[in-house]
Structures are given as C-alpha cells and as structure tokens.
Amino acid sequence: QGTLFLVPTPIGNLEDITFRAVNMLKAVDLIASEDTRNTQKLLNHFKVETPQTSFHEHNSKERTPQLIEKIKAGQSIAQVSDAGMPSISDPGVDLVRAAVDAGITVVPLPGPNAALTALIASGLSPQPFYFLGFLPRKKKDLTAELEELNKRKETLVFYESPHRVKQVVETMQAVYGSERKIVLAREVTKRFEEFIRGTMEEVCEWLSNENIRGEFVIIVEGNEHAETLEDKVWESWTLKEHVSFV
Ligand code: SAM
C-alpha cells in the first residue's frame, strides 16, 4: 500500500518551499491539487513532472474514495492546496480522515502557513491563540460569532478576503470597542508585505483611507477580562465550599 503525503506550498514567495517538499512532489506517483493549473506553475518552476489530479471542495466526495483506492493499490499521493498548508481553511481533511479510517499512513510535511507566519510578527501574544479561519459572511452571523469569541482570552486569528476586510474590522470595533489591539498582516512573504498594527480605531481609520488590495490575516488581541473555564470551575467550587460551611 502507498502513503498519503500532505505537502505545504508557498503562500507567496516561491523560495519558501522546502527541499523535502520539492523532492516529495517529484517522488510520488500522483499529486492531488486544489487547482491543477495553479499548481502546474509551481511544478514547472521546480521541474516536477509528476501527473496531477484535481481535488477540491466540489469534487472531494467522489474523489476521496478513488484516491484511497489508488493508495491501497500501491500508489503514493501528495495532496496540495493552492497555497500554504493543506486542510487549513483549504481542502484536505476529508481525504485525511478517509486515509486514517482505511489504515493508510499519512505523512505531513511542515511548511508555509499564513496564520502562523503572520502571528509571529504581529507583536500580539502567540500563546495561547485561537485560529478560526474565515468568519461567517452574513452580518448577523458575523456579529454573533464575534460576540461568542469575546468570551476568549486567546489571541484571535482570522483569514479574510480584501473586499470584506473593512466591513469585518468595523464590526470588530463595534463588538470589541475602539481600544482593543488589532494587526492586519497583508501580503505576507510577498513584495508588498506590510503589517498594520494599532487599536481598532486606528486600523479602521487606515482601512477607510486605503485602497484595499492583497491577502490579509487579521490578528486580534484576546479579551483579557474574559473568564476561562478554569475560572468558572474555581468559582463554582468555592461557591459550593462556601455554602457547605454556612
Ligand atoms: N491553507 C492556507 C494556509 O495554510 O495559510 C490558507 C488558505 S485560505 C483559502 C486563503 C487565505 O489565507 C487568504 O484569504 C488570506 O486570508 C490568507 N493568506 C494566504 N496567503 C496569504 C499571504 N501571503 N498574506 C496574508 N494572508 C494570506
């Protein structure tokens, strides 16, 4: 039986692919790509001649059993997404689950990821952090999700598209107040990489003056006043103790 390799690809700068990733892409029998045309550019650049098949959110249900059969028959497959880590706000998880269920060896390679790369340069606390990926699109759901996240102490990390980032940050300001710290990590690893750091109010002002383009990771300071689960357990425990001593 073959192996399923999970291979991260650059999030902007082609030099960020690892030697191991390139060698793995050359060595496997097949590459399952989110977008074969996009990945072909990467393969051409690194002179990888391995054939590709498409594996994306719209065909993952039919493709998963087919790929599992191929691996069982002895082929090794590398799964890649358009950029960064497979499965992180990208296709992959269905295939990984099916491989695990089928007793297939799953080998992850380390590599580029937008959230972690942005987080380490944000200046906000990287520990603990909470990664959500994309927020809900509808305004009502967005507000509800942000309110729910306000119960957390962790630094919050989101992905967002350029045409929604302004609306999302304005909603964050409404829910979290003007003073909460926020960082926009734009075009990380690319030519126009930029970090916009400030309070909600300052970053909203920046957004209203800018022609917003590029890819963004949004990083928000956690709610330092939020109660953690441990706080609540402690509270209920001390309350019980108190009652029993009365
Ligand atoms: N799997 C990818 C990863 O590991 O980071 C994420 C894929 S997700 C579909 C794409 C989103 O990631 C973008 O909308 C943006 O929020 C973020 N992103 C990807 N590349 C980025 C970059 N170079 N700079 C800033 N954000 C980026």
Structural summary, described in words:
The protein is α/β, with parallel strands linked by helices and 246 residues long. Helices cover 41% and strands 20% of the residues. The chain has nine helices and ten strands. It has helices at residues 19-27, 36-45, 60-72, 93-101, 114-122, 139-149, 165-176, 200-209, 229-245, and strands at 3-6, 30-33, 52-54, 77-80, 105-108, 129-134, 155-160, 181-186, 194-199, 216-220. The strands form two sheets. Strands 3-2-4-1-5 form a five-stranded parallel sheet, sandwiched between helices. A five-stranded mixed sheet has the order 6-7-10-8-9, with helices on both faces. The protein is globular, with a radius of gyration of 22 Å. The model has no long low-confidence stretch (mean pLDDT 95). S-adenosylmethionine binds at residues 11-12, 81, 83-85, 88-90, 113-115, 159-161, 185, 187-190, 215-217. S-adenosylmethionine (SAM) binds next to helix 5, strand 7 and strand 10.
